[in-house]
Structure formats: C-alpha cells, structure tokens
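U., I forgot to send this yesterday:
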Amino acid sequence: MTASRTTDTSTRPAMVAEQLHALPRIALGCGNFGGIGSAPEFFGEGLDYDQAAALMDAAWTAGITHFDTADGYGGGRSEAAIGRWIAARGVRPTLTSKTFHPLTAADDRGLAPERVARSLEASLERLGVERLEYYLAHEPDPEVPFDVAMAGFEAQRAAGRIGAYGVSNVDVEQLKLALRGGRPTVVQNGYSLLQRGDAAALIDQCVERGIAYTAYSPLCGGWLTGKYRPGAAYPAGSRMTQRPEPYAALVGEKTFAALDALGEFARARGVSMAGAAIAWLLADHRVAQIVLGPGRPEHLAPFSEAMANPLTPADREALTGAFD
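Result:
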C-alpha cells in the first residue's frame, strides 16, 4: 500500500525511514471508538462496538492493517473495542497506542515511568496482545522532564513489551529534549493542508534524524471535506459541533477561499475534496504515515481516491500555493 513515488533524490531519507520503521503508509485512526478523542465529557459517545467493528472490517478489507489508538480514547473503550474485534476476527493488525490522558480519575495522567509501565500493562490487556509495535507519549508532561519520560519508554522497549516508541503533539525543541533521554523513532502530529506548521522545521528534523513523521487529522476536523460553508450551520455531529476549539482559528474568508480552490482542483481531477487533500499528503514522502479517522465505512472512499489518483510534484506545489 504505497503511493506513487517520484525519483527526486530529496525524498530518499524519508523513504529509508519509512522502510526502517515498517510503518504502513495509511493507518486507521480509532479515536472515535467509544468517545471523541480523550475528552472525558464524551466518554461513552462516538461509535459503539458494532459501528466500530463495521469500520474496522471495512478498513481491513481495503488493505488498512495498522490501527492507531490511545488509552485515553473513550476512557479505554477504543482499545477494548479493538481487542474485542481482534479476538472475534482472528486477525492481528499492527498497533500504535499512546498514553498520557486520564481514563477515569482526573489526576491519573502523565508520563512518569511508573505510570507508563502501568498504563502499558492495562493497554495490552484491553487489546488482548502481548506486545505493541509502537507506543507514544500522547502529550508532553509539564511535570515530568522529557528525558525522564523517554527513559521509561526505553525500559519498556528493552523489556520487549513494545517494538518502538515516540512522541506526539510536540515541537522541535520538545523533540530535542525527548532525544536526550531515549531513542524515540516516531513523531505523530496534526498535519494537513490547513495545518502546516511542522513543514518549516520539525518534519525536516525528523528526516535528518531518521525519525518517522506520522500525520493525524489529515482532513483537519472535516474542514478539508468541504462540509463547512460560510454562513451555514455546522452539520450535526461534526467536530465543529463537538470540539470546535482546535479549529476556531480557521473560521474566516481566507480559509473558505482556499477551500474553494481545493474544490476546483478536486473537480478538475474527478475526485472529492477529501481525496485531493489526502493525495496531497501522500505526495509528501517525508510523511511516513497518515492516520485516517473516518466515522463510517463510506468515509474510507477518499483514501481509495487518493491512492488511485496520485499527485505529481507540480500538482502538489499548485495545491500548496492555494493555501499559502
């Protein structure tokens, strides 16, 4: 499952990193299984088990065999749903999970090594597996220095309970701190046409250091699907009606003008706006993996569109320019 590649030699470090870490280019994001991300006020909402199972079935059929979750998603419900599905289907996706957020008690959070060990044990139990391929620090912990936190993750890798570890929601300086305490080999941040802050420095740092950069929220909370229109009410159940805070800064004429350009670009190529936005990410070979977070099986269609309609370097540059 690999997008078309150019022969540009500047892509080679990322290609090597991708092969080194064996990350499939696309992962199924499971943040809406039993909740809406790690927000306690939404625990028990999101997709129920039957809905999550239908989505995992569809993803597996489409060739997506890497699932991305976190212990905080749905207060443990996401991992439990994946574990139940694995047991029922008799298949074993490769897995990324993350830790930091509380599952129940508001004060049970963080990256202290003893908590990381305890949280990992609970995740393995919910997932019904003996080992995780990837385990990430979901957020920086203001109370635990990153070098101390990474030493805890390194201990779990040395014990054979995880294959590799990394960090999420970090900037360049935080990544440098993490590298002092261990060997994180994955960074996972939000990245899309509407969220490109990492392009300036962090992604290049990852390439230089042989760290796999993985992108979540490739459709930026649904903004890149075209579902949000100026002056119109937000669709019921959308991220802008549930957790609008991360996207509030996008509301404005500049964003809507860029989305109009994306719509024109997509129509000219016979794909959806979402398909074009995912293809833009796939054309960046510095990005080792894209984490899709669909709500229903039919939301996987843009992934197929993007794979079938790769962008040329000129296409990607033109689309990037529309969002500058």
